[in-house]
Amino acid sequence: MNNLNLMPHEAERNPIVFVRDGEVFANSREVATYFDKRHDDVLKAIRKLIAAEPDLGLRNFAETPYVDGQNGQTYKSFDMDQDGFSLLAMGFTGAKALKWKLKYIEAFKTMRSHLSQPRPIDYSDPQLLLGVVGHLQSKVGEQAALLAEQSDRLKKLDRIEGAYGSLCLTDAAKTLKKRPQELIRFMQGRGWIYKRVGNASWCGRQEKIVAGYLEHREHVYRDSEGVERVATRALVTGKGLVKLAELLEQPLH
Predict the structure, then answer these.
(1) 16-54 b/e (C-beta count within 10 Å ≥ 16 → b)
(2) Contact assessment for residue 227 and residue 250, using Cβ atoms and an 8 Å cutoff
(3) Number of DSSP helices (H) and strands (E) in the chain, helices first
């Protein structure tokens, strides 16, 4: 992970961005420090954005734990891309806020420009050629391991689907050894489920249904006045259980 620290010789604060998997991000902790804000307040602002539009949690914000160097405790933070930062920074006001926002956006642009610059390659260098050969050999090994892993995963998926079928969110949480509300918050934050206005049941996002992770099923219930009504609720498929287990790092047996 590469950091870009702009204006090294100036006394003013420096916006910090970093690269991961070829993309440029900023972390909520550095953003809070840069804008003289409490990290808790920045986290609340991010969660409010995600609650208003859950897809932001997939596209623009990624929850990232970190370990405090003083007490050894693990806390939460968020990595955000430039669009996520821009949405968050809309709520930052003050005399210097605009100036600081522009500097942070410039840091994103500078890092992306740095990444896009071509690097000359000297193919006559024997060390380089040996490195290329070694890299290709490692890739072949990785591909073989990946194919084996995918084969095992498909077998596991078939077994899980046959064993569990589709489960309501509560039963899925029990299977995954999670509290129902904990799983529901996780699925909502990752853009799996949502609630329609005036509907108490959770619905599945269309892309998760198309992917085969969720399905909809109608059920009958009685409202507060004892009237029978029909509602649609989301169920987790066997394939969805496997995917959730991977995301939660919770083994399924």
Answers:
(1) bbbbeeeebbbbbbbbbebbeeebeebbebbbebbeeeb
(2) no
(3) 10, 9
Q: How confident is the model at residue 10 (pLDDT cuts 50, 70, 90)?
A: very low
Query: Pairing between strand 61-67 and 74-80?
Result: antiparallel
Confidence (pTM): 0.43
Q: Which of 201, 182, 178, 198 is nearest to 190 (CA)?
A: 182
- Residue 238 and residue 166 in contact, taking contact as beta carbons nearer than 8 Å: yes
Q: Please give the backbone phi and psi of residue 131, each rounded to the nearest 5 degrees, phi first.
A: -65, -40
For residue 212, count CB atoms less than 10 angstroms from its CB and return exposed for 0-12, middle for 13-18, buried for 19 or more.
Answer: middle
> CA 64, 57, 65 angle in degrees (round to 5)?
10
Domain ranges of the chain: 2-116, 162-248
Q: Could you give the CA distance from residue 112 to residue 24 in angstroms, rounded to a whole number?
A: 7
